[in-house]
Amino acid sequence: MSSGYVGILSVELHFPEAGSLKGKRKFVKSAKAQLQNRFGVSVAEVDHHDLWQRARLTMSCVTREYREAEHLLAEAERYLAGQEFELVGATRDVVTVE
Fold it and tell me: What is the CA radius of gyration of the chain?
């Protein structure tokens, strides 16, 4: 039986330009859409719902090879680091699924 891999990336984002929850939602919605479209990952906002300038997003992907999952997560993290908001922190994990 062959196995697959689930990649999980959790990121902490800071939006210095957001002056309200509505402003933050604009950034979060855009980031989620870009991640889904560019990398084919599933994304959810999982923390800091009531803070104007912070968000924690967690994304996941399923691949056939470990290196493919690791590469995809690294590219998504690199993409987020290059945006107009700040990438404060990130954790990556790849889990084997049999």
Answer: 14
Sequence-distant contacts of 35-41: CB under 8 A, at least 24 apart? 35/59, 35/76, 35/79, 35/80, 38/76, 38/79, 39/72, 39/75, 39/76, 39/79, 41/9, 41/72, 41/76
Residues in the chain: 98
Reported as a single tens digit per residue, the pLDDT across 10-47 is 999 999 988 888 989 999 999 999 999 999 999 999 99
Number of alpha carbons in the 13 Å side-chain half-sphere of residue 39: 29
Tokens of 89: 């922190």
